[in-house]
Amino acid sequence: MSDKQIIKPQPISGFPEWLPEQKLVEERLLRIIRREFERFGFTPIETPAVERKEILTAKGIVEKEIYALSRLAAGEGEDPSTEMALHFDLTVPLARYVSQHNSQLSFQFRRYQIQKVWRGERPQAGRFREFYQCDIDIVGNGSLSALNDAEIPCVIHSIFSQIGIGRFVIRINNRKVLQGLLEIHGVPQDRYQAALRAIDSLEKIGEEKVANELISDAGMAADRARALLELLTTAPDLDALRRMDGSETLRRGVDELSEVAAGLRALGMPDDVWRIDLTIARGLDYYTGTVYETQLVDNPEIGSICSGGRYDDLASNYTRQNLPGVGISIGLTRLLSRLFDAGLLKPGAQTPATVLVTTMDRRFLADYLALASELRRAGIDTEVYTEPKRLGDQLKYADRKGFRVAVVAGDSEFAENSLTVKDLASGAQMRIPRENLVEAVSVLVR
Amino acid sequence: MSDKQIIKPQPISGFPEWLPEQKLVEERLLRIIRREFERFGFTPIETPAVERKEILTAKGIVEKEIYALSRLAAGEGEDPSTEMALHFDLTVPLARYVSQHNSQLSFQFRRYQIQKVWRGERPQAGRFREFYQCDIDIVGNGSLSALNDAEIPCVIHSIFSQIGIGRFVIRINNRKVLQGLLEIHGVPQDRYQAALRAIDSLEKIGEEKVANELISDAGMAADRARALLELLTTAPDLDALRRMDGSETLRRGVDELSEVAAGLRALGMPDDVWRIDLTIARGLDYYTGTVYETQLVDNPEIGSICSGGRYDDLASNYTRQNLPGVGISIGLTRLLSRLFDAGLLKPGAQTPATVLVTTMDRRFLADYLALASELRRAGIDTEVYTEPKRLGDQLKYADRKGFRVAVVAGDSEFAENSLTVKDLASGAQMRIPRENLVEAVSVLVR
Description:
The structure is a homodimer.
Chain A: H1 20-39, E1 43-44, E2 50-52, H2 53-56, E3 67-71, E4 84-86, H3 91-100, E5 109-118, E6 130-139, H4 147-163, E7 168-174, H5 175-184, H6 192-200, H7 202-205, H8 207-216, H9 222-233, H10 238-243, H11 248-266, E8 274-276, E9 290-296, E10 306-311, E11 325-330, H12 332-341, E12 355-357, H13 365-377, E13 382-384, H14 391-401, E14 405-408, H15 411-415, E15 418-423, E16 429-433, H16 437-445
Helix pairs in contact in A: 1-4, 4-11, 5-11, 6-8, 8-9
């Protein structure tokens, strides 16, 4: 065996892989996210990791970021017409899914989708080439009321309250309001994108530089650029905005924003977890109404932890039906990585089990196994130590892995029909009657 | 818009995609599987979908079944040395993971892994090119007691009892027993694989043909082939096997099998869900001790729903450490597809939510939203109907999607501070005081 060729495994840059104690934290988050998505009536779907190339490239995405598939060695009967590539987001697959299965779905279609996506980016700190996205979207058939735009932040609120990473605020705006204000401030329509891009970078580069960009890139006069920025950065007054003349788009945007705000209040959203913020633009061309961004109040350096918005037509590349929608996405891998780095989430135990049944005397193996079965039947996740090692080594293993409780028993315990139960955090241990096992352990792990 | 080019989405052969009512069934199974894996102390890990090519091909797998990755368009700074491909199982990634992170893991390492895998097979009925595997393995460092081999069938038992697809039996054998019997019956060592392959096909092709194969492929004399088959197909008597002379391997296999059987009894496994079956060989060269197969008693045509076994060394390609292990795998996608086909699992509702709050009068929108929030806070998954449609259409939508309860309220209800709650299965409806909402709905969905 010693002359065998060993291939030493190396990590692949951009493809993160968690250790068990980190993965257990990710699993906790995934469970909360799934639970809350379902609480609001979103149904799970899952699409294949691959799509036909023609589907993925329909939107004119950067092709070098897409990973194409081919067989390592060509097989017989290969069908070259089915060129496939890995999906780079969950929105294109949703659009394809809804178009393909249209007649079998019921609208409004509320779906959630939690899957890995792949992007062939040059790897750099904080950029991943494989990562989890957790998306929800509500897709209407022909129309979709703004009530849906109010439900989305409630889902986000439910999730992040439970994850427990400090205070957060969901900032809400409407692209029509921004466009209307650009209109009123004399920005030509072909410069809207440039202006929105500038506004979107406000937090990064500051007011002064944004003003310069609005002047140079969006062709605004200096005084109008400053007036616009003044308006955007002042606490928004929807009534005052509604009274502004000169843009039907602005009026519609303000109406939508008001409807969303009223919906949020009716849904019981606390006032301090959301606010209207006219500086939220979202880079993507895609959004046409409500837009969202979510920040941690005490850790703004983490960036947006969840963002999304409303779009007029999900699947115009794949179907002639008009499918408006609204949705939001959590980039879980990136978020988790930043929360670990910032110490806001900490890896804990290396096992989901709370109890280790030790095996100090192998004459009693059958008893140890029976104890483990009893705990498991009571819903307590349990491991049995299976190897012939000294009790001290078994307890070290229990500490290292992060079990909460060890069950210990030998001649003395079994002679009295009793057990020793050890609280591994405090080191305290107590002798209990054997029939009290489940009760005693339940108290300790509560 | 009508002159826009539409790309009509088409399914890709071999890449299954469930409708929501099917995906909800898959989710239910995934939850049971995860829950039971953790009950037995298995910790989740997840590896990237891709591995370096050199890792995947180390075992001399058929290369044409591996999907390699490349960028759709070459990017700058491409590193050609990192050739990547999609994993085709979860065992090679586990071996690589354990080798790479060895110093950070605690052994015994009990891990579960539920991920998609990809195989570039020619698609045909029941063969998938993308499918879920749900794997557990217990990996030891240098040694691993046979107690672990007894725990594995208990996990399987817990899972399939809860899924509820009828009676099943876990058939257990030991490769050493088979090899010892081949030895005793005069099969030369270089014909063991041929003999095991023949025995493995017993159920498919019958005793007569297996005898012929043992004679022609494994070089056995006709009488010894028949004697061997007689022995294998008779109810096994471990004591009689132990008394047979001429094979140390047989004796060790019988000892292991006895230890596993004793463990199963100690763990409280009911007698009717498992049995020792000397005809179980498992095709793979890989296994060296205990082997498992699981069948549905009343639907044997479904094939093995879960199989696995014990191996001497998990990762000899990637590390010089000796890592023996035992594990089992559920091929969830294939299983689910067969269970749907056989009618053993049936797709139900299109939504995880149980309650639809209808919105018959939009003057009361704020009230409807508040009702939905109240239900959600009580842990009841709820959707609000958001579009301005007639109540009849809303109730049709509720039926189609499979909600259990609809909440209805208009002028008359709100004037009396009451609500109407409709049981959608029976059609029965009742007027309740508004404050009894959660209680009334809880009774209906129980």
